[in-house]
Specification:
heterodimer, A: 285 residues, alpha/beta, Helix Hairpins, Pyruvate Kinase, Chain: A, domain 1, B: 134 residues, alpha+beta, 7-stranded mixed sheet
């Protein structure tokens, strides 16, 4: 039976932990709000760009040069570039382990191909450093996601793809669906998946559609990467918030348990003392 | 016909502007575009340079670089890769970017990406020209 002092010490320690997890939950909540604001702020551009691209695709279909664009070349997938977006920090529940499992699954599925991993985020880098070929790493992207950083990551992939070093580029990340649900998403970004073309308006084209399409594609790939970075940043904070919330509740349960033990032990001590006093008095009679 | 149209300027990071304007001068990739209400639908690549518009009788200027623009009925949507209001431009940073770009164009390196260096130069010039402008 642990002594009263031991029990008190443990309660204090668990209470400290609970304070930390509570604070982390609040920090994650406020970071989540900012991350969500970023996602919302990027929407007018992203949705507009996709819509325009669809129009351009519709207008340029049939033109041979449009389809022979270097970012649309479909080649047998022998060498694959995987861009893995994990977080830099842990304590985010199953956030990173899901991603890592997703990465491993993909490696297994594409066994005949060689896969290079571009690790965005410390957790993914640490895991795959010894298990796969890393083509590069980006740490600290999620603190303050910027388009410039996403562009750097995308341009590297575009460069390797057009140079023929890789035949396809996949993006693997957690999509933010709601605070309690993140979905593991694997998408191919190169060869670029052009949006289904339907012409909504009869435009005057300042440039030939095929040329416009060619110039729009690199940015389209960058936007996909940027969108994934934003989603992942929001999903990370949401996952951490939920994990810390349940850690706080669990700490509360442990404290209740320990307090019960403590009270029992104290009661037992008092009872013992009374018995001692009473039997001492009896012995004197 | 309405005498204003909606001008929307968005970058990947934010919506910079959504306002009713009476007139806009937009730097297209193949030349300056003047847009008045009732313009025919048009799609163009966006160039680099100052974009000016008139709202409430006042002319204002922004710096934009790269992207696409769309004119549809009563609406002009400019999707710029980067766009800034004059008061957001830091003259120091723009000046340094200008120096870097000039340096790069002067160098006789063989693998110089000429187009890229040139657009960096143009962007820096635009931003610098607008920086004083409030």
């Amino acid at each position: 039976m642990p002594s009263l002092i031991d029990l008190r010490r443990r309660i204090r320690s668990v209470r400290n932990t609970q304070q930390i997890t509570k604070a982390m939950r609040m920090v994650a909540a406020s970071k989540l709000r900012r991350a969500q604001d970023r996602v919302i702020a990027s929407r007018p551009f992203t949705s507009g760009y996709r819509k325009l691209l669809a129009n351009v695709v519709a207008a340029s279909s049939g033109e041979v040069e449009a389809l022979s664009h270097p970012l649309l070349q479909v080649r047998p997938e022998q060498r694959i570039q995987l861009i893995l977006l994990t977080s830099d920090r842990g304590l985010a529940g199953p956030f990173n382990s899901n991603l890592i499992r997703g990465g491993m699954n993909l490696l297994e599925k594409k066994q005949d191909a060689s896969v290079d991993i571009e690790a965005v985020g410390r957790k993914g880098r640490d895991f795959f450093r010894r298990r796969a070929t890393l083509s590069g790493e980006h740490i600290g992207v999620f603190d303050k996601p910027s388009y410039t950083q996403a562009q750097k990551i995308a341009d590297k992939a575009i460069g390797r793809y057009t140079a023929g070093q890789v035949d396809a580029v996949y993006l693997i990340y957690n999509e933010f669906r709601s605070v309690i649900s993140q979905r593991l998403t694997v998408t191919r970004i190169l060869p670029a998946p052009v949006p289904e073309g339907k012409q909504t308006t009869n435009y005057i084209f300042e440039q030939p559609p095929a040329q416009l399409l060619g110039n729009m594609l690199p940015n389209y790939v960058r936007i996909m990467v940027y969108g994934a970075v934003l989603e992942s940043a929001a999903a990370e904070q949401a996952a951490r918030m939920v994990a810390m919330e349940s850690a706080t509740t669990n700490a509360g349960k442990v404290i209740d348990q320990l307090t019960l033990h403590l009270n029992r032990a104290r009661q037992a001590g008092i009872t013992k003392e009374i018995i001692e006093v009473v039997s001492g008095a009896n012995a004197l009679e | 016909m309405a005498d204003t149209f909606e001008l929307e300027i968005a970058t990947p990071e934010r919506l910079l502007l959504r306002e009713q304007v009476t007139e806009a001068q937009i730097p297209g990739a193949s030349g300056e575009l003047g847009v008045l209400p009732g313009h025919a639908p048009l799609l163009s690549e966006l160039g680099i340079g100052p974009l000016s518009y008139v709202a409430g009788g006042q002319r204002r200027v922004l710096s934009v670089a790269g992207g696409v623009l769309e004119v549809i009925e009563d609406q002009v949507r400019v999707l710029a890769i980067s766009a800034e209001k004059p008061e957001e431009i830091e003259p120091g940073r723009a000046g340094r970017a200008l120096e870097r770009a000039t340096e790069r164009l002067r160098s006789t390196k063989e693998n110089l990406d000429y187009a890229r260096a040139l657009s960096a130069l143009k962007r820096a010039q635009t931003r610098l020209a607008l920086a004083g402008h409030k």
